[in-house]
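for the recovery benchmark. tokens below, seq after
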């Protein structure tokens, strides 16, 4: 990815009286990149998004979005940003079509985009129903449709899967992958860490307004150096397993052994298992999950 970043924050702080919600945050996001902001409530995720939208002004530092200061309020920049807030409030008396047409007029988009957008988020059949009859998940999908108006270059999603069932969450993340492949920049704030694997190019871990870690899942795993879990299934009884496995693994369930290894030692362990031939029936390798990494970096932050 080349060119200027779509989002660039340098030494950003935001204070509310005596409370510093964001402290010395520097991060960037390039075109065609999906970045996840993860952290507990109060970590600073929503504050950062509001700074990118120009809804808040930093106490210190600089914020640039699409090359401009979002606080300046330039319409040409703002119309290229899509935003899905955590809490959505639509007029319950309007239909989805009427509501999306209203937002289309605000963004100066043609009315012909409304129906295809509602179809894209799975609301075509309910397009002319009043929003007051919608479920929470349907309102969330309508919020996503308004965020996608104008094919934004930057899409900010604050807890986007709230109220969505597993099938709809999968559709949402499939849509995000399509947008990123098309060159859009997507920033996601979420508590559902397991959903981000395979979606986010980078993860920014925040705690009390401070960036604890920033990198790809692979880079965070290398940095954390957490143990890898390996489950080995033996072909016969546990007593017939190779001696090295009985000595180094924890036996359970009659035919299995659980082991751990360092990232550097993973290949050596797998080669040893393969060399055992028919004695080994199956091997499962579990890398540290994003939940594991998140807990690790929080502990490391508390220890500072």
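predicted aa per position
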């Amino acid at each position: 990815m080349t060119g200027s970043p779509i989002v660039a924050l340098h030494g950003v702080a935001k204070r509310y009286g005596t409370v510093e919600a964001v402290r010395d945050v520097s991060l960037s996001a390039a075109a065609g990149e999906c970045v996840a902001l993860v952290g507990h409530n109060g970590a600073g995720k929503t504050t950062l998004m509001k700074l990118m939208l120009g809804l808040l002004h930093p106490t210190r530092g600089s914020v640039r979005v699409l090359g401009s200061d979002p606080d300046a309020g330039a319409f040409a920049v703002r119309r290229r940003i899509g935003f899905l807030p955590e809490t959505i409030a639509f007029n319950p008396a309007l239909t989805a079509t009427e509501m999306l047409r209203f937002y289309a007029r605000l963004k100066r988009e043609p009315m012909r985009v409304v129906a295809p957008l509602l179809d894209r988020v799975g609301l075509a059949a309910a397009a002319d129903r009043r929003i007051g009859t919608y479920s929470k998940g349907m309102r969330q999908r309508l919020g996503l449709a308004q965020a996608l108006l104008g094919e934004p270059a930057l899409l900010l999603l604050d807890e986007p899967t709230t109220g969505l069932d597993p099938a709809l969450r999968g559709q949402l993340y499939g849509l995000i992958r399509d947008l990123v492949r098309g060159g859009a920049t997507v920033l996601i704030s979420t508590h559902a860490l397991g959903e981000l694997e395979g979606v986010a190019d980078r993860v920014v871990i925040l705690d009390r307004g401070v960036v604890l870690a920033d990198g790809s899942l692979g880079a965070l795993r290398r940095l954390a150096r957490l143990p890898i879990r390996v489950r080995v299934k033996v072909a016969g009884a546990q007593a017939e397993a190779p001696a090295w496995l009985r000595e180094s693994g924890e036996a359970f369930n009659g035919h299995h052994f659980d082991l751990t290894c360092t990232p550097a030692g993973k290949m050596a362990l797998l080669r040893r298992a393969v060399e055992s031939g028919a004695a080994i029936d199956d091997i499962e390798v579990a890398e540290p999950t994003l939940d594991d990494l998140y807990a690790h970096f929080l502990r490391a932050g508390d220890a500072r």
